[in-house]
Amino acid sequence: MNPGIQKLYDLANKPGRLIIGLMSGTSLDGLDIALCNIEGSGQTTKLKLLKFETVSYTDDFKNEVRNVFSKKEINLEKLCLLNPWIALQHAGMINICLQKWNINNNEVDLIASHGQTIYHAPQRLHQQQKFGNATLQIGDGDHLAVATGIITISDFRQKNIAAGGEGAPLAVYGDQILFSKKGEERILLNIGGIANFTFLPGGNENILCTDVGPGNTLMDAYMQEQFPGNSFDKDSLVAKAGTINENLLAALKAHDFFKQDFPKTTGPELFNLHYLNQAKQISDTSALSAADTMATLNRFSADMIVVAIKDCLRDKSEIKIFCSGGGIHNPLLIQHLQTQLPSCTFLSTAENGVNPDAKEAVLFALLANECVCNDVSATDIKFPGIPAVAMGKISFPA
């Protein structure tokens, strides 16, 4: 038997596993590295976050990724080169963190790597009938495994698409396991580049997970264009200095995506500076100041999150909303949400023992655990429109 397969078999039969979850989002702030101790699988899972760090990306890394990110026409040679290069950069960051944490690489059972999203193309966006849903994340799992000496599970989104999903959001699997509470309705709201939420009804039926529209992506892109050297609107200072323009806000809200049924996915392929500029032309606001534009973009993200949550809640008004992602550090955005959902209680996922900045990396560690240890297809949990399948491709060290 291949020794790697034997080791994987042994890992699956251990009572617990030490797993590193990796997340690199569209904001390109850095690599989230979450070291988790996970016992059991499925509904018996117990997870403890042991260590967490976001390793900032260099300007060179950001520029290399931005050369190919979310663009229909790119240099194919550069894409080919970046696939192993990104993996090796991530491997170096993992090795440094483990050394700093005084943990030997051979003590870690698995790495769960989301990879770096380059393009997300659900059919609802590309609208080419002979092609289905598609997505592409790079950062090769084999290179990660060899460079760290740790079995690596990567490329999770492909199985979701192969089984009939859109490849995102995948948070529903981990949200249900880690955050559901019998008899209590909850929403897990993640505000990353794209905002998404999971509605947990307090049982295993009618769980919903969906993207709702832009979170930080439009605000970040505009800040980077208008204020070089600023990746985001720190403390909402620019947006707070501006005034919301109702004409531009209406134009931003006019896309058919917001009328489509749940669940649905989207990305910066739609919500980008071209989208903003088109909305400005339609609303005759091309001369709008940077502060007023940021104020309007901030409200746009908040409004579409609110509309989606209200649509999900229907006749309900009181519910706990557990928040995570970079958007929770945007005080004006959170203020808009709280003002428009006054009867909802806004909490951090830290209330359930998960650092809100680490949540996505933690969820991929959990998906790796499920890939190795659990027959997800045998579960009685129902995810409308989202296939219940084990995800991830397995790479062994050399």
Compact summary:
This protein has 2 domains: 3-170 and 362-395, ATPase, nucleotide binding domain (Nucleotidyltransferase, domain 5, 2-Layer Sandwich); 172-352, Nucleotidyltransferase, domain 5. Strands 1, 2, 3, 4, 5, 6 and 12 form a 7-stranded mixed β-sheet that branches. It has 14 helices and 12 strands.
Detailed description of the structure:
There is one protein chain. This protein has 398 residues and is α/β, with parallel strands linked by helices. The chain has 2 domains: 3-170 and 362-395, ATPase, nucleotide binding domain (Nucleotidyltransferase, domain 5, 2-Layer Sandwich); 172-352, Nucleotidyltransferase, domain 5. It is 38% helix and 21% strand. Helix 3 (76-100) packs parallel to helix 5, helix 7 (171-179) crosses helix 14 and helix 12 (290-313) packs across helix 13 (331-340). The two termini are 15 Å apart.
**Helix proportion of residues, in percent?**
25-40%
Number of domains: 2
Give me the CATH superfamily of the largest domain. ATPase, nucleotide binding domain
Number of distinct helices: 14
Oligomeric composition of the shown chains = single chain
Q: Low-confidence segments, ≥5 residues, pLDDT <50? A: none
% residues in beta strands: 15-25%
* Average pLDDT figure: 93
Task: Give the helix/strand class.
Answer: alpha/beta
How many angstroms does the end-to-end distance come to?
15 Å
CATH topology value of the largest domain: Nucleotidyltransferase, domain 5
CATH class of the largest domain: Alpha Beta
| Biggest pleated sheet | 7 strands, mixed
Q: Output the helix-strand order.
A: HEEEHHEHEHEHHEEEHHHHHEHEHE
